[in-house]
Design goal:
mainly alpha, 13 helices
C-alpha cells in the first residue's frame, strides 16, 4: 500500500471514530471496553448506520429521498470499487471486505432506513421486518467482527445477536415514543396509537423485550474474551434503562425521554466488571 493511500485510510477511519464519539458517548464508551483490535471496525459500522439514520431523521430542510438514494448508491459503489471519497463509506467498505459482511445485511438495513422516509405506522409483520433491518442486522454486522472469521461461532450466535439488537431497538422506541410521534409522525409498535397508549400496551411490549434480553444473554456468555465484556456492558446499560422504563407509568414515558445519568452508567460498568471477573454473567 502506498503511503498516500495509507494516509487516506487513516483519515477515513478517524472520521468514523470521531462520528461514534460525538453522536453517542454511551456507545463509544462501550467500544472502549472491547479488545483494541476490534475498535476501528465497530467505529466503521457505527459511522455507516449513523449517517444513514441522520438522513432520514434529521435533514428535514433537504430532499431526504434524494440524499438517501445517493447515499445508498454510494454505499454499493464503495463496496464494489473498494474505495470511496465519502470517508464514512470508505472505512465501512474496508470492514465489509475484511469480515465478509453479507450484502443481505446491508440491503435489509438500507431497506428499513428508507421506510422511515414515508412510513408512519406498522403491522405486526412490517414491524418485525423493520426491527430486523434497522437493528438486528447491525448486531449481526458487529458479530461478524466479534467472531473474527470463525464461521461456526458466528452461525451459533446469530439468533442471540438478533435478539440483543431487537431488545435495544424496542427500548429506543419506548424511550423516544414522544419524539417519534410528535416530531416525525411515527408509531412503530403495531396496534398502538400515541394518543391512546395504555399501561397494557406498555406491558405487552415489555414482555416481548424481556424475552429478547433472556435469549441475548445466553449468546453473550459464548462470546470470546475480546468482545464479551464490552457487549455485556452494553447489555447491562440497556437492561438498566429497560428496568427504569418498566417501573414508570405509560403516561410518564409519553411525556419525557427516559435516560440513565452518567453516574448510573459508571455504576453499571463497575457492577458489570465485577460480574464478569467473578463469572456471574
Amino acid at each position: 500500500m502506498n503511503s498516500n493511500l495509507a494516509l487516506y485510510n487513516t483519515i477515513c477511519n478517524q472520521t468514523s471514530e470521531y462520528t461514534s464519539k460525538k453522536y453517542s458517548t454511551s456507545f463509544y464508551s462501550s467500544i472502549q471496553l472491547l479488545h483494541k483490535s476490534l475498535h476501528q471496525h465497530i467505529y466503521n459500522i457505527y459511522g455507516f448506520v449513523r449517517f444513514a439514520d441522520e438522513i432520514v431523521d434529521t435533514f428535514h430542510e433537504y430532499d431526504k429521498q434524494l440524499l438517501f438514494c445517493d447515499f445508498k448508491n454510494q454505499t454499493y459503489q464503495a463496496i464494489e470499487q473498494q474505495i470511496s471519497l465519502n470517508p464514512i463509506l470508505h472505512s465501512f467498505q474496508q470492514t465489509v471486505h475484511a469480515y465478509q459482511i453479507d450484502k443481505e445485511l446491508i440491503d435489509a438495513f438500507l431497506f428499513s432506513m428508507e421506510l422511515d422516509l414515508t412510513k408512519e405506522t406498522y403491522t405486526e409483520t412490517e414491524y418485525q421486518q423493520y426491527i430486523y433491518g434497522s437493528a438486528e442486522v447491525v448486531g449481526l454486522m458487529c458479530l461478524k467482527v466479534f467472531c473474527e472469521r470463525d464461521v461456526l461461532l458466528y452461525k451459533k450466535l446469530v439468533e442471540p445477536a438478533r435478539k440483543l439488537g431487537a431488545a435495544f431497538q424496542k427500548i429506543n422506541f419506548l424511550r423516544d415514543i414522544k419524539a417519534d410521534a410528535e416530531s416525525l409522525g411515527r408509531m412503530y409498535f403495531p396496534n398502538c396509537d400515541f394518543n391512546t397508549f395504555t399501561q397494557l400496551d406498555k406491558a405487552e411490549i415489555e414482555k416481548d423485550i424481556a424475552n429478547d434480553f433472556s435469549e441475548a444473554l445466553q449468546g453473550i456468555k459464548q462470546l470470546n474474551s475480546k468482545s464479551q465484556f464490552g457487549v455485556y456492558v452494553a447489555y447491562k446499560y440497556y437492561f438498566s434503562l429497560f428496568k427504569k422504563i418498566k417501573s414508570l407509568p405509560a403516561q410518564t414515558i409519553l411525556n419525557s425521554r427516559i435516560r440513565n445519568s452518567n453516574f448510573k452508567k459508571f455504576i453499571i460498568i463497575i457492577h458489570s466488571y465485577l460480574n464478569y471477573k467473578l463469572n456471574w454473567l
